[in-house]
Predict the structure.
Amino acid sequence: MDREPIPWHKRAMADPAKKSVVIIGGGLMGTSAALGLAERGFSVTVLEKALPGAEASSAAAGILGPEIENVRPGPLLELCRMSRRLYPEWIRRLHKATSLDTDFHEGGSFDVAFSEAELKDKRTRRAFQTETRSGEDLSGDEARQRIAALSEEAKGAIHFPDDAHIAPRKLFRATRIAAERAGVTIRSGVGVRGLDFASSEQKKVSGVLLDDGSKLRADWTVVAAGSWTPLVSGLPLERGAIVPARGQVIELDGHFPRFQSVLFGSDIYMVPRSDGRVVVGSTLEFVGYQKAVTAQGVHRLLSGAMRLVPSLAQAELVDSWSNFRPYTPDERPIVGTFGIEGLIVASGHYRMGILLAPITAQIVLSLAEGRPAPLDLAPFEPRRSFAGSAAR
Ligand SMILES: Cc1cc2nc3c(=O)[nH]c(=O)nc-3n(C[C@H](O)[C@H](O)[C@H](O)COP(=O)(O)OP(=O)(O)OC[C@H]3O[C@@H](n4cnc5c(N)ncnc54)[C@H](O)[C@@H]3O)c2cc1C
């Protein structure tokens, strides 16, 4: 007699000897957490409503820049520096598991000023970095000696030698393949409606409720839904805790590499790719979940790029896209448990989620294993109040 086929969600959770984890969201955050958990013996299923990795994690420029991105000391800078230190080993392990290249490049970054006033302002704000030698104060000529293509207009720059960059789409592909090889089940086109609580007191999450009305049980539920996290029903997030912040990006093909480092101008940045292309980002817009590349956005990015590196005027404009950074009002990610059994949230990484993926994966693993996290999680606590931060 023919047996009824076992539905995929029952198959995925079929090994009773293993603790099960269901992850909502197949971006870099969900997939890298899944990889870490599977390597430690958890039975992991990632549920992705659309295509894995196709949202912010593919739209990102790929700056791994704790120094260039942070203009004040504090817990976020420490988190970023920890994650940056994890990168070389993480990339080595991904390469060992997949043989794939991720274009990881430790080429540093430059924060370039175009006027004496701008340079003075950068020197003041960056003093905590230059005084501790994580940043280096350069004159315009010194900066041009390092970046020959840099504009004659540049009056000076702060150089951060420890920053790096990577190609996010290649990184995601390697992470996804490594996760699947480690036993993770990734399901595309499976939307999660909300959390499934064990009782009406909502003190314990027992899995998820899917869009088709069915349920998937798990010992742990990890919410890694990026900008869509507030739409997961049952999650007790403060209103406005995570908001989509649109960023438009263009890609230029200069046909040969003009520089090897990340460059920041007044309101744009540029990230070189190994094939000679240059990614130019990014606008910051609060327009809900509306994807669009606008004339004004492209104009601003092109003007900023040509001002920094004038020879890019001859480059081809080969691509453009937009997507959403999961913004939080205090710009810190939301990572923790809400004090609810069986629940872990790993979201709100705003403009540094590529950089923060390795440390977030480690934190998720430590929470699932009941071990102390690698750092104090209080500044990233999901129940913190955002009152007084810049709400959008
Ligand atoms: C233009 C731009 C440039 C950026 N540049 C950089 C950079 O240079 N460096 C850096 O470190 N960071 C950068 N970032 C930020 C970084 O991309 C994000 O912080 C990071 O990708 C967030 O990863 P994520 O997995 O949380 O989100 P996402 O990649 O958006 O993934 C979330 C996934 O969850 C899925 N999902 C949502 N809700 C559900 C549901 N209910 N059920 C099932 N699936 C669901 C979505 O479909 C999506 O695939 C940039 C972002 C943008 C937009």
